[in-house]
Amino acid sequence: YTTLFRSRAGSSRAMFMIGNAAIDAASQLRIATLAAAAERLAAPLDELRWTAAGIECRRGPTLTWKQLGSSRALDGLGRAQLPTGRLLEVGTGNQVGYPDHMFATHAVDVAVDEATGRVRVLRWVVAQDVGKAIDPACVRGQIHGSLAMGLGQALYEHMDLRDGLVANASMHDYLVPSILDVPPDPIIEIVESGQGLGPDGAKGVGEVSAVAAPIAIAHALYDALDFQIDLTATPQEI
Q1: Is the pTM of this model over 0.85?
Q2: 215-236 pLDDT, tens per residue?
Q3: DSSP H or E run through 84
Q4: Which of 197, 193, 111, 187 is nearest to 144 (CA)?
């Protein structure tokens, strides 16, 4: 199942807003620190170099970060602004646009026990455009989490509503997947298009897989059972 995630509201904006604000703040901090070092060392900026230890002067001593911080407050206030265009309804404040495009494709193999209705996911393959994988381990963790959420939505998390009230008494009858239920080794292909609006072209990660995952399972169940079943597809429903 391939999806383009168009959110009404979502934390994919966090990559754009927080990431770009952090880059802006770091740039301002760098400028402020170099200016402070140039003043203290009476040296031109082109003779200063930013290092892990502090500010190094080509023809003088290195000022450590502790020395620089003790002389004055060094900070940077980063800002980021959403792309131009109509993202919100003026009257209601509802989001109608989106800051970024997110793409993911999921494919699953499922096995259905016709006697019990139990479903097992045998194989899960994901290809997702993340723009730029700034932290690949974190990206994979986000996608793993999305798979677990989608699995729960598709097969486990049935909310029992009666007369408008939730009748699930506890987590004993509102099931969430455990580590034994989630496929242990999904194949995750990270695609880096560089087309995101975040730092270095990065995009948000978690939401689009959470959208695609349960629908991929629904299509796999249709292929296995030859009829469409509503989610949540509990064993009782199957």
Answers
A1: no
A2: 999 999 999 999 998 899 999 8
A3: none
A4: 187
